[in-house]
Design a protein that fits this description.
Elements lengths: L6 E11 L5 E10 L3 E11 L5 E9 L1 E2 L1 H15 L12 H5 L12 E5 L17 E6 L12 E2 L5 E3 L2 E8 L6 E9 L13 E3 L6 E2 L14 E5 L4 E5 L7 E8 L8 E9 L11 E4 L3 E5 L8 E6 L5 E5 L3 E10 L2 E8 L9 E6 L5 E8 L5 E7 L4 E6 L2 E5 L22 E4 L2 E5 L3 E7 L2 E13 L3 E11 L1
Antiparallel strand pairs: 1-2, 1-4, 3-4, 3-33, 5-32, 6-7, 6-11, 8-10, 9-10, 10-33, 11-32, 12-31, 13-31, 14-15, 15-16, 16-17, 18-19, 19-20, 20-21, 22-23, 23-24, 24-25, 26-27, 27-28, 29-30, 30-31
Amino acid sequence: MEFDMERAYHSLARKENFVTGEVIEMLKHKVSSIPIRGFTKVELFDEKRFGKKVEEVTAENFISINMKDYLEYILIREYSQIGAWSTSSKTYYESNMRPITSRFFPFDTIALTTDSRPENPQNERVVMGDIVGFAFKNEYVGTDTKRGTINTTESYTDKGIAHFVFDFSTQAANGTFSSVVWYSDIGSSSSISSQRYYQKNYEWYVALKGNNGISSTSDYRGGLCFDGSSFWTMEATGSGARKIMEILVTPGTNGKNATFTIGRVWDTNFSSSYDVAYDMTYDADFIYYVMGNRGSYNTIYKIKKSDGTKSTITLSGFQYLYAIERVGAYFYVLGQSATQVNGQYPLRWAKYDSNFNIIEAKNIFDTNIAAYGMAYNQQKNEIAVRTSWGLFIFDLQMNRLSYAISQPNNTFAYPGIAVKDGEYFLRDEYSFFMAELGSLGARNLLPTPVTKTSTNTMKVTYDFMFV
């Protein structure tokens, strides 16, 4: 599908305070690859002044490139009914393994977020920041302190226009927000949970379980890293020690799965079907992995890539080690802190030099939350962490940036995340695969943050225009 990438124009965002008379304007430069434009109006009303409007903010959004992928998926799905792509007489995998994978419409949830970053339309895919308020496209009456309701009386569709109006009561969406976003959430019809991830390209789907001598049993398996030439993971072969395996991948073509061969294979000190590497990383000579609540809890295990020689490194300050990643000249480690805080054992991050001398440390979650892998994405200058609460994006100082992202099921049994050439790869029971993190459909950065309190009601109007 071709889009006119030269669709560039300017758009004026505006805030007006009706009490102080303050007016703030911000000129936005827009480059649209999708023939849809979206406009937001946020209105605050003061219930202590009998519903008098006290503030109005207007701004234009950008449509995420996730929407372009969704439209491409729709086209490919239709194309798969004819010719060489026909699904007739093909297996499930043959009929579903397309270069562009299954997508959900990224406009089922509207949310008010704390994300104040400049807009980056050509690259943004993830809902960042915290969610202050949200609404679905159905009516709601209840006590949720974040959820608003669609106003079915004022909302309508007309030729080329979809006009959505959402109302927030005095109890809902109180706080300060900087962006209005649309995205796809995996939650129920009554609550939000986390934004979606997608399998990005089935030509990089590597089906391990039951292939090339890898066991087809229900053993735990996981941990994943890419050392610049090969993937490495912990796998089961049916009996004996769990294996650290080098996986040599040949990507598929014309929508077919990748194939793989097994390179170097080294025994570990573990043999139980419940033993699994939570995470692994590498340097020129070694694979490093951690075992969570298995083995010696505060120990990093090392295997020499050339001959399988095993050794260990013991760290202080942790009860369990959950994740390890090499970030430039440093090693980052995540684990359960050995120090209790308010009755909880926080998730602790520590930064080490190449000899594992500690440089700095801090708690990144203050509760008993486990991690199941960490990956440094140099191209995006970010770190992704799989946890028992979802997958999150952090900056290099380990400050959380994103709203929760969904991930494959049973993360405790099949952990692992890696990066190759700026693309994320996730482990699951059967495979590892390229993944697109996030399901952002659109974002509108407001000219200034909006603060709503319990004395305010709020109306958020969103117009989509097809141009």
